[in-house]
Amino acid sequence: MRYVYGITSALLMGGTALALVTQSPVIAQVAQNESSEIAKAVPRAGAPESFADLVEQLQPAVVNISTKQEVTLGVRLDPFAGTREPVTQEQQGGGSGFLISDDGYIVTNNHVVTGGPRGDAVNLVSVTLTNGKEYKARIVGRDVASDLALLKIDATGMPFVKFGDSAKARVGDWVVAIGNPLGLGSTVTAGIISAVQRNLGGGGAYDRYIQTDTAINRGNSGGPLFDLHGNVVGINNMLISPVGANIGVNFAIPAEAAIPVINALKSGEKIERGYLGIGIAPVDEDLAAALGLPKERGEFVQRVEDDGAAAKAGLKRGDVVTKINGKDVTPSQTLSYLVANTKPGTRIPIEVVRDGKTLTLNAVIGTRPPEEQLAGTSFDPEDEQAMPDDPKGTADTTIQTELGLAVQTLTPDIARAIGVDTGTKGLVIGAASANSDAGRKGLRRGDVIVTANRAPVTSSDALAKVIADAKKAGRDAVLLEILRRGGPSAFIAIRIKS
């Protein structure tokens, strides 16, 4: 589940997911929640005297998930051989999931099958059914934004469940959760829906949850939340707790949000989300007072990307977006949520307030770039960062070990953020160790390495090769050409760590 301690959130083990039921071409299977026994288990109104008959039908389709992942902790020097080798550690994790087809497709949370600080897929996934049978599973697809993942086991004739219509879920409805809390094995809890469409302030396309007081703990992540008809209305995802354990404030991703993502993962389609290309801020009390607008209505445009959908529509810095496609922009219905859930290519009206006047602009929604590309738009050269504990790859490890630098490829977005020409090619420094020669000579976050030993470097591999060639030639330093905002490039010799 994912836990939130006050205003600080910590990823633990929870999730969301949905998918369509597929039928075996050989033997027609019946979903566990489609049995006539379900009608007998639950009366037409109110809660049953016991959930036992309902659980008996549903529990076989819920699985426990165990994972293993090799994580690089650092680099060890062999003083006798003069070589370095990575130091790794096996990390174990787990969570819950549920079968959505008789041929072995399983839905869970992405973070259940994610390992290490970079969010890589784990090396090994195994699932265990309630009858104790264990299967190796492969990851069919993962989606970070929605925190959903789809797994597959090689089996047929599996018990499975179907999704219900979470849009019909009402506050006060009874719900049942089945999962693997705290590694105890299949466990059942029940409660009611406390709220629907709960906005937790995270922004984006999936910041809408079903809130429930059903007991959820670490390990319930990815498990199903059932209504009393036995349909999956949500995927258990996170809880809020000041003590790290369940206090009755828990959240599940609604089925209606998860189904399209799971269907796309199953078919191998690219998941596309809407994008305007603007930086925004909420209209808080002070900003509203400065602009003469009602507070908590609309969002303020801080930045407009060149050639983006917003720029082409005529949006400008300082505009306040109040409506998207006829829907009000509010703290509970954010601009990010509305845009991300609009299909790319759709032409929509956008209502803005500019200099006290209301205008309507028309925009063709763009496609949201990959998350790693978006990370470049928020690169802050003044934000001092420590060296990463787990470099991304062999080349990054070499650069971090030999030069005491963490680098990444310079993109036009990062170039704009650090104040250099967007056509500049090179590597931007993300962090510099204070104990390295580079740190002592003043290299810092936001500096750009243009060349190394006179050779252009636009990737970590290229710089690592220059370092390796220098060592092979018996040199103990490399000549870096450094570009910093506001001045010409300069050459600085940086010693290679011996």
UniProtKB/TrEMBL annotation:
Any one of the GO CC terms: periplasmic space
Protein source organism: Sphingopyxis lindanitolerans
Gene Ontology biological process: proteolysis
Signal peptide: 1-19
Taxonomic lineage from the root: Bacteria, Pseudomonadati, Pseudomonadota, Alphaproteobacteria, Sphingomonadales
GO MF entries: serine-type endopeptidase activity
InterPro entries: PDZ, PDZ_sf, Peptidase_S1_PA, Peptidase_S1C
Origin: domain of life: Bacteria
Family statement drawn from the similarity comment of this UniProt entry: Belongs to the peptidase S1C family.
Main subcellular location: periplasm
Subcellular location: Periplasm
Catalytic reaction annotation: Acts on substrates that are at least partially unfolded. The cleavage site P1 residue is normally between a pair of hydrophobic residues, such as Val-|-Val
PROSITE patterns xrefs: PDZ
Pfam families the UniProt entry points to: PDZ_2, Trypsin_2
Protein name: Probable periplasmic serine endoprotease DegP-like
PDZ domain ranges (all copies): 265-338
Keywords: Hydrolase, Periplasm, Protease, Serine protease, Signal, Stress response
Enzyme class name: hydrolase
Region (Disordered): 369-394
Enzyme Commission identifier(s): 3.4.21.107
